[in-house]
Amino acid sequence: MDGVASVRLVADPSSFNFSSASSSCFSASSFQPPELPPGAMDLSPCCEGAPLVASFPHFLHADGWYARQAPELTPASSSPSRHQHEFYVSLDPELGVPVSAQVRFQLNLHLRRDAAFPPLSRLPKTPVVLPLLWAQEGFDSLGGWRVAMLKMALAAPDVVEGATMALMFMPGKKMRQAKQTRFFPVFL
Fold first, then answer.
1. CA-to-CA distance for 46 and 44, rounded, in angstroms?
2. Who wins on pLDDT, 1 or 6?
3. Nearest to 101 by CA among 59, 129, 140, 152
């Protein structure tokens, strides 16, 4: 990126799969209701019971069940793509400075049938997850002066090392020259 080496760190595709071995340290019951397949995280414990579910945009890496919930909201033309919907951070490997980053997520409404509330009384018996919005925040490039500053910060240790070596070498050379001029004329 911008002539600066970087390492890209990408969110694990199983980030919202609480039944996978990589997520075994999380309590699946806290983040994934039993009626929902892998691919989304229940936010209701963190949002005072609001029926919200988080996922990657367009249900990237999620079970196909989610996309089938509202086909008109997730048409084939907007099917998930890693390039457009992936969550990542690219870091300079020496300093750890972010070179580019894109934080992307989608908020969804988790609806269940409720006979006491007429609009929800006609829902199917199985829960429905409807996309509300997906958000993206980040930057693809550092831009002019930031790249120059980063390159200067990366080059500074080499410049300082070279200058230090030169400064250490110069007095030694001067001392050797001084010794030669003092003692050699005596023997000539």
1. 5
2. 6
3. 140
48 φψ region: left (φ > 0), alpha (ψ -120 to 50), beta (else) = left
* Domain contains 24: yes
Q: Name the 3-class secondary structure at 9.
A: strand
Residue 26 lies in a domain: yes
Domain total in the chain: 1
- Predicted confidence (pLDDT) per residue in 79-117, tens digit: 777 778 888 898 988 878 788 889 999 999 988 888 888
Q: 127 in helix, strand or coil?
A: coil
Within 13 Å, how many C-alpha atoms sit on residue 49's CB side?
Answer: 0
Q: How far apart are the first and last CA of the chain?
A: 64
- Write down the pTM of the prediction: 0.66
Those residues with Cβ within 8 angstroms of residue 173's Cβ, 6 or more apart along the chain or in another chain: none
Is the residue at 70 inside a domain? yes
- At 41-72, the pLDDT tens digits run 888 888 888 888 899 998 888 888 888 877 66
Is 59 contained in some domain? Answer: yes
Domain carrying residue 107: 7-142
Q: What is the pLDDT of residue 141?
A: 74
